[in-house]
Amino acid sequence: MTATTDSAVRTDHVVHALRSALRGDVDDSSRRRAEYSTDASNYRVVPQVVAFPRDVDDVLAAAEVSRTLGVPLTSRGGGTSVAGNSVGTGIVLDFSRHVNRVLEIDPEARTARVEPGVIMATVQKAAAPHGLRFGPDPSTWTRATLGGMIGNNACGPRAVAYGRTADNVLALDAIDGAGRRFEARSGAGALDAVPGLDALVRSNLDVIRTELGRFGRQVSGYSLEHLLPERGTDLAKALVGTEGTVTTLLGATVRLVPVAAAPVLVVLGYPDMPTAADAVPALLAHGPLAIEGMDSRLVDVVRRVKGAAAVPDLPPGGGWLMVEVGGDTLDEALDRARALAADAATTAVGLFPPGPEAVAMWRIREDGAGLGGRTPSGEQAWPGFEDSAVPPERLGAYLRELEALMATHQVDGLAYGHFGDGCVHLRLDVPMERSGDPLRAFMTDAAHLVASHGGSLSGEHGDGRARSELLPVMYSERAIDLFAAFKDLLDPRDLLNPGVLVRPRPLDADLRRPAARSLLAGSGFSFAHDAGDFTTAVHRCVGVGKCRADGRETGSFMCPSYLATKDEKDSTRGRARVLQEMANGGLVDRGWTSPEVHDVLDLCLSCKACSSDCPAGVDMAQYKSEVLHRTYSGRLRPVHHYALGWLPRWARLITAVPGVSALVNAVLGVRPVAKAVLAAGGMDTRRKMVTFARTPFRAWARHGAGGAVTVTSGAGWKERSTTDGQRSGAAPRDDGSTAGSVAAQTRPPVLLWVDSFSDTLSPSVAHAAVKVLRAAGYEVLVPEHDACCGLTWISTGQLDGARKQLTHLLEVLGPFAVNGVPIVGLEPSCTAVLRSDLRDLLPDDPRAVAVARETRTLAELLTAPAPIGPGDRWTVPDLSDVTAVVQPHCHHHSVMTWTPDRRLLTDAGAQFSALAGCCGLAGNFGMEKGHYDVSVAVAENSLLPALRDAAPGDVYLADGYSCRTQADQLAGVQGLHLAELLASRL
């Protein structure tokens, strides 16, 4: 008997039964099912219902509902399975939300007892005080759950030293498809837990001994070799890698290993990846902790996206091996590293002791799945054949034949992987926009190639829906029948994750991408990096789930809303999945106006952190803006779109006439009035109104600057540039005369672009910038005409209005930019518009390229090499007596990077802690009605705890107006812009 066919009626029964039996949430909404319809694979399988068990008792209850109603049950952890292992048609159980505890760390026995939904990073953190860790460490360790690792037999880089997950599992608490709960263990009597299993093993000893367990990374199929008497009759290890098809995991006892005292990273360069692979066997003799391979083109992707500074200086090569060696001391590890390098068959060697450079290299390696999601030509690359493995001594030959096969099929990809174990990760640009036929053709040929080298279709990701159909290429008919018999003993009704491993679904069934229709760019963003197609853009998300990780300790800002709510709908991935469903028109069938789409986007802060922190380059802020643009084009908008989206317009009007802003501030200072205005504008009444400047900066510049700045038009500057033929000298005044001393005439010009916030809400920042720039030897130009970047129009999806604002901005700033005048932005979010969104909204205007090229932050200008930077003209003020809490703006982090600011503060001698993560206000987001609680929760991630812990006299440094406003409103702390801090010391 097999699982019952799904139907709408059955869904009602299933939901009712689950809600009656479980304490945890049960959700059958179309939005929730869309979020869980895929994992990190190519597949889309829509579940009937998603349940979030509170504890093990809830899991047992859900399993009973599955058996009673005959509905399939699929276990899910972090949802990072690459082969379609964690999607299913019936009940999907998400263990990660609640069933996620470390139950015990036993430092004496070096063991841990854990629940299935615990994230590996949590286990590592709990074990670290005892000098211990869990050995296997897949690249998704910051969000992958132990249950998922056990399900797929995950390995990671250090499996070379510590083995696979199976090698580190001691016992499992499980319930099988027949409802039998047992502790899976090893030794005499271990097989008695499953009636008939002992007999099955004894009748198939020859098959098990000859076909299974032939090399370390043979993960495909069921690892029944662990049931052999000579291997300890270990049922626990045999259940590892079964992908939820025979049992549902309730708990695990795992082995811990000592943390390496002083690991040293050796990077070895080779002409290409096969040559690098040839060197692996000799290196294994040195007992390394890890041997990773990496195509140099992966690193090129990082350099292109994040700049050259994001990559340490590496030895030359077209392919690298990253080899980690350990030792009791750093000197011992370095000696071992040098000895290994001597046997590496290359002179291109780099040694990286523990420190930021080694961390940066491992971070690049961890991001491989996302970075490899696009080929060098920009084509989307897909998993499917991303996890093959061969014995290490065969790896070089295998890679050469694989490259030839790729050329035959005209596909490309960026290889990396666990070369010390013979495992290769490779995403390929197989064209899947229309059908799965090209995928089937390549996968079939590739499976035969792997088998010819004695390899495995999967080395650690499991077979899932991607490779299970091809197991007969690798195994005999008797072995395939043995797998089916094993499955039938434990899951006789085929309820547990059906369609995987045994009686598999076709590998080209249920593919997500061919079902999606094109949504071509219109009057909004151009999506030039995605062939002008919104659908291609949202399919950048490959599901690796880095947006679900807490990356604050490593400087990641993504994803603030998920960290606050722990709900998949509030992750970048969850949002992308719903947008993908909108593209295929299945569950989400009302297009841009679909309530599911607006629900998942509602708590997106538009922080843009995903655009840099997501290795696949997902830019959810841009997607949200496009959705709002398409939804409300030609329609009445929510009132806050006008109140906040047009804020620069209102601020200019209020500050245009002397005295009006003082009156407005006084009126809004009356709390009942302020609350009424907030409510009328669609804002949360717990917020405070902004304070408008009595004298905007531009008014001061025009009438009272006292020669500190030169107000000039673009036309005037263009005329001067043509006349002078040089970039230095005094700019013409409105009357045609020149101003400034001889010394001033030799000052290089810089254009201070004063955005709407710095002009009308916080002009002290602009005044400070003038002081700093003049002290650094620049002639400070201020454009004669106002130039708004349209940020608030963009964040509220008013892209027609944003384009108008930006077109005017190009008329004002363009002449300066095309003549090579550096443009300094003060508000990070506005500066980021000029560096990113400007080119996407006006892709055909060459002035946009020039403005983006010349626009810099203050720190970028001051730390730039001469002649752009001040060079010897200026020395950064002494800040050695300053201790600061620094909140980099999200857009600053994601678009410009905060590296120049860090360098400047360090050079100035300041002591500071730079926070990672959003402040929570995020422009209009935190002001809008319905967002206050999440805004505060996001602030509690980093900002508010840091402010509470700050000592008296510590400086709060934040360039973002939002970041300063949030600290003021929630903590009563006044912040400074970098310009203000520097100016205070001049």
Query: What average pLDDT do the residues reach?
Result: 94
| Overall shape | globular
Compute the number of strand runs: 26
Assign the structural class, choosing from mainly alpha, mainly beta, alpha/beta, alpha+beta, or little secondary structure: alpha/beta
CA radius of gyration is: 30 Å
What percent of residues adopt helix (DSSP H or I)? 40-55%
**Sequence of strands across the biggest β-sheet:** 5-6-10-8-9
- Our count of helices gives 46
- Strand proportion: 5-15%
Cα distance spanning the termini: 82 Å
Spans of 5+ residues with little confidence (pLDDT < 50)?
A: 725-745
Largest sheet, if any? 5 strands, antiparallel
Architecture overview:
The chain has 986 residues and is α/β, with parallel strands linked by helices. The protein contains 46 helices and 26 strands. A 5-stranded antiparallel beta sheet has the order 5-6-10-8-9. A 5-stranded antiparallel beta sheet has the order 15-12-14-13-17, with helices on both faces. A 5-stranded parallel beta sheet has the order 19-21-20-22-23, sandwiched between helices. A hairpin with a 4-residue loop joins strand 5 and strand 6. Helix 1 packs antiparallel against helix 3 and helix 38 packs antiparallel against helix 39. The longest helix has 20 residues. The chain is globular. The chain starts with 7 loop residues before the first helix and ends with a helix. 57% of the residues are buried.
